[in-house]
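Weekly structure sync, notes
Attendees: PL, DS, HV (note-taker this week)

Item 1: Ubiquitin-like domain-containing protein
DS walked through the input record. Source organism listed as Symbiodinium microadriaticum. Sequence as pasted into the shared doc:
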Amino acid sequence: MAALTLRVSRLSGQTCEVQAAAAWTVADLRRAAEAELGGLSQIVRESGEILADASALSDVGVKHMETVVGLARQPQLVSNSCGHALSMSDGRVFTRGEDPSSRYLLPGHLCDVRKLVANNAAFAALKGDGSVQTWGDTTAGGDSEAVQSMLKNVKELHATWLAFAALREDGVVVCWGSPHFGADASAVQEQLTGVHQICAASRSFGAIRQDGSVVAWGDGFYGGDCSMVEEQLSNVQQLVGSDSAFAARRDDGTVVTWGNHGGDSSLVRGELYAVRRLYSAGDAFAGLREDGSVVTWGQPRRGGDSHQVQSQLRNVQDIKSTEANFAAILEDGSVIPWGRLSVFQDDGSILPDGSVITWGDSAFGADSTSVQSELRHIRGLVASHAAFAAVTAEGSVVSWGDPSCGGDCSKILDELVDVVELLGSDSVFAALRSNGSAIVWGGENCEATVHGGPRSPTDVAT
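Item 1 (cont.): predicted structure, written out as tokens:
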């Protein structure tokens, strides 16, 4: 293939032209476009086809002067008991261990990260070239040396509590970490080809194959064994995992379930039809039906019992969920919550005037009375496991809830200025500032860390 010129456009409308050499891969094109457009995670054709980074331009059939779309890299923040990892939209990556004396090694060089994933004790980073880098507790997947040769051309990463699974471009699945939490897929390894979607429960994984069938592995009590319903698992379009069960939506709108809590849907079997989307929260599931109604099952305290609000669940447009509850967004923009109401990520609602209301368990950030006077002109709100943080129109930050989850930022208020974006994770928050730096606070030690600052495009952070 002769050299060609390609137009790379962001969704914002910003466009550049790239002179591509004959031997280039899609990754080469993406990196060249980043010099003018900033961080890009993927290249997509206008038809919607995602071009794999490892593919040669000659193989994917792009044409001279064709316009392709560069998807902007989004900042990501993940955390667990070992520390946190933060990737910026410009490609910089920062990590920190929770305990400086920890035996867990942090990555020495980490850049061009497409996706960050954390389980309870380890981290995995999917890089732009389809490779994977891991760190953290070696028994939980922090050491991937045994499978590193197979971690090529990876397009998705997923995690149970103590294991990881990678889906490659060729539909093959690679697992590592604790064998008791889904890392041992030997019993179904021959079936783990032609896979196009993976999802995780706490101790098991499930996968949809190209033919619409489903494979599950891991702890059988937690959904890792679907043999009892295998004959029903055909033409599956969506697979969702809770802590200990799975639910599969078929192309006719019916639902098949298996596993522990939420795995038995017999009490609502007659209502599980015309379902257009499935959601999970802890040990419960919710199905949004075509007529805008909602059906729930599983652990009542985790949102499996919605009878108290069932009469209000009409004209539902979407459902949000976290570990212990659900909230339905209605057509008129109102929100109907149910479940334990303790760690719901959208417990705080931003009203049209920029004020915030909260509800639920005060131990998990629902009591905002101490900062209510400051919750005005809010333009962004994020949550951790048990706290909230809000950014104001002026770029300052207000947080409340459990200090070990980022609920107290009083010691760093002078630094939390000119904030353009907030990110939340399990135990820490990150404030991205206009000068290119980031401040992360929370965690077991309730400490704050400043990452980065003004930089040139060639700088790499570790």
